[in-house]
Amino acid sequence: MTNPTIQHLWTGRDDGPGAEHRRWHHAVNTAQAGTTGIAILGFRSDEGVRRNKGRVGAVDGPASIRSALAPMAAPAELLVHDLGDTSVEDGNLEDGQERLGAAVRQALDAGHLPVILGGGHETAFGTYTGLRASRLSDGRRIGIINLDAHFDLRPEAIPSSGTPFRQVAEAERALGHGFSYTVLGISQPGNTEALFQTARDLGVKYLLDEECTESRTEQVRQFTQDFIDSVDVVYLTIDLDVLPAYVAPGVSAPASYGVPLSVVLDVCRQLARSPKLAVVDVVELNPRFDDDSRTARAAARLIHTIATERTGNRHA
C-alpha cells in the first residue's frame, strides 16, 4: 500500500463502478504485485533552492502534485504504483539525493517508468544517479532533455538547485562517457553570459523560450526528434518555471515569458511515445505561491499526458 502519510492525497470523486468512471485515485496501487507501470516517487526537498538563494517551499511540491493528479480521469490500461517519498533531513541534500537515486534504480530495474515529483531541481542529480546505476543504462548513451528557463550548470562547490547538470557532466566525464544535454525554453535574461559560455563549452544544444512559440511547433518537434535520435536512453526533466508565470505562478522563480503549455504538452507527448524514454521528473513546484493550485494542475496535466501516451491512450 501507499505510505499512510500520503494515502489521503489519493482521494477524489467516485462516479460509480466500472472502467468508464476510473480516475487516478482508483488506479494507484491496485495492480497485482510485479505488474509494471508508472512509478510515482516524491522528493521532498527545497534545500537546493535555499542554497541557490531562491524562494523555498518546493518541499511540499510532491503532495500538491499528487492531490492534483488524484481526480484526473484514468484509462483502464493505466497502472500506477506510488512508492512514497524521499525526504531531505537536516539540510543533508547529498544524502537525500543518494537515497532518491537508490529508489529510482530499484523502480527502473523493476521495469517501471519512474516519475519523480520534486522538490527543487536538485532532484535531478538523484534521478540521474539512479538511472546511471540501473541495468537500463548498461552500454547505452544517456541523453537528458530539460524543459527549463535555466541551464542549471553553475560551477559551484556546494551542490544546489542551480548545479545538477554541471554535476552530471562531471560524473559522466569521470565515467568516460559523453555529456548529452539539451534544453528547451532557455530565458536569455535568466542566464548570464558565463552560463551560455559554459553551455557552449559542454556542447549543450538549446532553444530559447522565444524559439518555442506555438507558431514554431514543427521546428521544436524536429529539434526534439534530433535529440531522441542521438541517444539510446532518454531522461526527461521538467522545471515548471519553463511555463509562463500566469500558468505556473507557484514555482521557485516565475517566468516573465515562458513556453506555452500547449508546446510543452506537445514535446511531452512526443517523448512519451518514444520507447527510449526511461525516467521523468517534474520539479520546482512551490505550493506557497500557487494561486488556485494552477501550477500543480499544470504539472498534473503534464504527468497525465506522459502516462496516458505511454499506455497508448490517445485521448489525453
Automatic annotation (TrEMBL):
PROSITE patterns: ARGINASE_1, ARGINASE_2. GO terms for biological process: L-histidine catabolic process to glutamate and formamide; putrescine biosynthetic process from arginine, via agmatine. Pathway: Amino-acid degradation; L-histidine degradation into L-glutamate; L-glutamate from N-formimidoyl-L-glutamate (hydrolase route): step 1/1. The keyword Manganese applies. SUPFAM superfamilies: Arginase/deacetylase. Keywords: Histidine metabolism, Hydrolase, Manganese, Metal-binding. Mn(2+) 2 binds at D148, H150, D239, D241. Pfam families: Arginase. It comes from the Bacteria. Mn(2+) 1 binds at H121, D148, H150, D152, D239, D241. Coiled coil: none annotated. Binds 2 manganese ions per subunit. InterPro entries: HutG, Ureohydrolase, Ureohydrolase_dom_sf, Ureohydrolase_Mn_BS. Its cofactor is Mn(2+). The keyword Ion transport does not apply. Its EC number is 3.5.3.8. GO terms for molecular function: agmatinase activity; formimidoylglutamase activity; manganese ion binding. It catalyses: N-formimidoyl-L-glutamate + H2O = formamide + L-glutamate. It is an enzyme of class 3 (hydrolase). HAMAP family: Formimidoylglutam. Catalyzes the conversion of N-formimidoyl-L-glutamate to L-glutamate and formamide. Belongs to the arginase family. This is Formimidoylglutamase. It comes from Arthrobacter cavernae. The gene is hutG.
